[in-house]
Amino acid sequence: MRLTSVNMTTPLFTALSFLAVLALGSCLALLPEEQPYVERAGIQYSARPYTSLLTVPNGEQFGNWTWPEMCPDKFFAVGFMVRVESEQYGLDDTALNGIRLICAKDEDRSFLYTIESHTGFFGDWSDPQYCPRGVLTSFQLRVEPHQGLFSDDTAANNVRFRCSSNPTLAGAGLDYGEYSLWSQDCGDGGICGIETKMEEYQYGLDDSSLNDVRFHCCAKFQQ
């Protein structure tokens, strides 16, 4: 039997090659995007030393300061999520219920830890937001002041962070109240811990949930 060689320059071969490339591209597009590994740090790294606390002056009065949670050593907050109860239209509003920090080591976003301290019970977590580069270094808190004995208090409504690479990231919170001035900056380090002031569940009375928050700064190069 005589074998006939294929002319690699024929229009038919060129068309088949083009279709093969398209098919491969379609298959790759269907592959799921690689997701980072995320682990909840909790309180296991709460003994990590820190250099300063970031605070703002407009936090509300209800509730108590709860426990701190810290990123592991050499990890810093590079992004965040917020837990927000949507507008309740005449029922009890609580607005911002929690802030979850996302910790990474250097610029490696493939292995992450989360920290959040105590959070409220209402609402859903937003999608994460990340600094394009660098770490979180300062924040603003949007707070509705006390509305009086017979009015609905929401206290903390939203949060903004500034990254060391300069972008500002705003949470998907509600619009009651005003933002504070910016907190102090972490300087040569970054945010590495969180502690929340939380009003516990009021069992049918007026809930305000998250009232205030403070963040820990760690030095980038600890001895």
TrEMBL record:
Name the record gives this protein: Vitelline membrane outer layer 1 homolog
Keywords noted in UniProt: Signal
Record PANTHER family: VITELLINE MEMBRANE OUTER LAYER 1 HOMOLOG A-RELATED (PTHR18841:SF0), VITELLINE MEMBRANE OUTER LAYER PROTEIN I-RELATED (PTHR18841)
Keyword Cell cycle: no
Record CDD domains: VMO-I
One Pfam entry name: VOMI
One term under GO cellular component: extracellular space
Signal peptide: 1-29
InterPro entries: VOMI (IPR005515), VOMI_sf (IPR036706)
